[in-house]
Prior knowledge:
Radius of gyration: 33 Å
Order of helices and strands: HEEEEEHEEEHHEEHHHHHHHH
Bound molecules: adenosine-5'-triphosphate, magnesium ion
Structural class: alpha+beta
Amino acid sequence: xxIKNLEQWMKKIKVKNLVxxxxxxxxxxxxxxxxxxxxxxxxxxxxxxxVKVFGNTEDCDREYYALSLxxxxxxxxxxxxxxALYIVMEIIRGVDLREYLQSQPLTMALSAKLIExxxxxxxxxxxxxxHHKRQIYLQPDGSLKVIDVARTIWRDRVYPYPRKxxxxxxxxxxxxxxxxVQEMSPELYAEWLHYIRMEEISREITALLLPQxxxxxxxxxxxxxxxxxxxxxxxxxxxxxxxxxxxxEEWVKAMLARxxxxxxxxxxxDEHWDKLEQNFESxxxxxxxxxxxxxxxxxxxNSKxxxNSKxxxNSKxxxxxxxxxxxxxxxxxxxRGAKGAKGGRHFAGDRYDDRNRRDEKRDKxxxxxxxxx
Length: 373
Ligand SMILES: Nc1ncnc2c1ncn2[C@@H]1O[C@H](COP(=O)(O)OP(=O)(O)OP(=O)(O)O)[C@@H](O)[C@H]1O
Ligand SMILES: [Mg+2]
């Protein structure tokens, strides 16, 4: 057959994707179909060359890219060309693993070839190193070839072990293969077993959780114990902690973006925050939370209105001062940091969680403060 006619033939083949079924094919070309799946249909062009016609360009691009990654190896069909919806490639002959294992044993040597295949997948950059046994072909010389690789790349979530290969082998051959892996690669075997166990546990938990219908009213009532805004003193402490947390994280981000050593940043934050706390505590002796009801969250009307105007004015002034100091500084740093924002990428707030260190310092300072008074 003449490959020059390829474009003409391609125009005469229509492949349509279906949901959960093999593609629908309308073939008005003289090409003979060799097989089809959910992504495309394969037609013979010559003794050695076939063309896979896809239902969409995305699958076509992915398969071409995946095949091109493996062209330096002997595992995949050779590529000869590509169109928007088709790939011209070598015909893979031999016997596929599904047929082979129907009459032949899974030997240690064959298991070794399967592990080597997975190693090659990983080496060439496939994200999903898993294949159904029918997509793996044994060659007359005993080597393996693989077709249908579009799903080896660009998969968001993949099983971290060759689940499809294992399950497609069937219970008996799966056990044989795993025993071979255990013998040849005990660490890999242990890892796969771990993932298999994790998967089993996840399934058991999901089976338990899915049918459960939680008592929403009970949860709502009980969850009230988690609320923190009712008790004013507690609320102020929580809000204080929140603002502190935000401030510290933003500051560290900004400083890291500027290339400053995180330890130095943390020490400076401690110093800065301790000063603010000392100022605050000296202005608000014990028992005075500094909190005034009208600045609580929207919807809380009860605490409004029953405070004397003097107290209100004072505490408001104090608070606004405080706020001004903290957030002015914060803003400045944040905007400077934003220019070199790449530092933020490396920042993980928890890594710099120095709560213990700060608590110790705070205790020490409180001691000093008391002595001063
Ligand atoms: N390079 C090839 N050489 C020989 N036969 C092939 C080749 N590629 C595909 N085939 C045949 O065409 C069939 C369908 O191809 P393929 O499995 O690649 O389609 P698919 O739509 O991607 O399948 P799936 O639904 O599993 O993704 C195969 O089962 C095989 O019989
Ligand atoms: Mg496919």
